[in-house]
Amino acid sequence: MKFLVILVLFCAIVAVKAQLNLGLGLGIGRAGPPPPEFFQNVILSAEAQKVLATPSLPADLQQRVQDTLSNSESGFNNCKTLTALPWFQMRCVALQLSKSKAELEAIDDEAKARA
């Protein structure tokens, strides 16, 4: 009986730690920046630099790239404030990332069509 009670208590603590990121560490053990900052700084910045490196890119398309980056930043910030559930934040970040990458690809396609 004692073993069963200890096992249930242990499983409950593990479940709370996994879902809500609560417990003794309070999420400090995670290495590196949180996912939104990683996606924004590494992936989207690289995509934007690739589009901006296009020779003779018109000024309006350069402005659209900057607008896309600022819109994605606000979208990633909104993902942080949604809830404490990590899986929900990951879905929000993935949706925002795919939306922003699609916008950058559309800008790149338009630049190629204009050239």
Describe the protein.
- This protein folds into two domains: 1-31; 33-114.
- Helices cover 77% and strands 0% of the residues.
- The longest helix has 29 residues, at 86-114.
- It has four helices and no strands.
- With 115 residues, it is an all-alpha fold.
- Helix 3 (59-81) packs antiparallel against helix 4.
- It is rod-shaped and about 75 Å long.
- The model has no long low-confidence stretch (mean pLDDT 79).
- The protein has helices spanning 2-20, 35-52, 59-81, 86-114.
Q: Please report the total strand number as a whole number.
A: 0
Mean pLDDT: 79
Percent of residues in helices comes to over 70%
Q: What is the overall silhouette?
A: rod-shaped
What is the CA-based Rg, rounded? 21 Å
H/E series, N to C? HHHH
Q: List low-confidence stretches.
A: none
Taken as a percent bin, the fraction of beta residues is: under 5%
Number of helices: 4
Distance between the first and last residues' Cα: 76 Å
As for the number of domains, it is 2
Secondary structure class reads mainly alpha
Biggest beta sheet summary: none
What layout of secondary structure does this protein have?
Elements: H1 2-20, H2 35-52, H3 59-81, H4 86-114
Helix pairs in contact: 2-3, 2-4, 3-4
Question: Short summary of the structure?
Answer:
By secondary structure, this protein is an all-alpha fold. It has four helices and no strands.
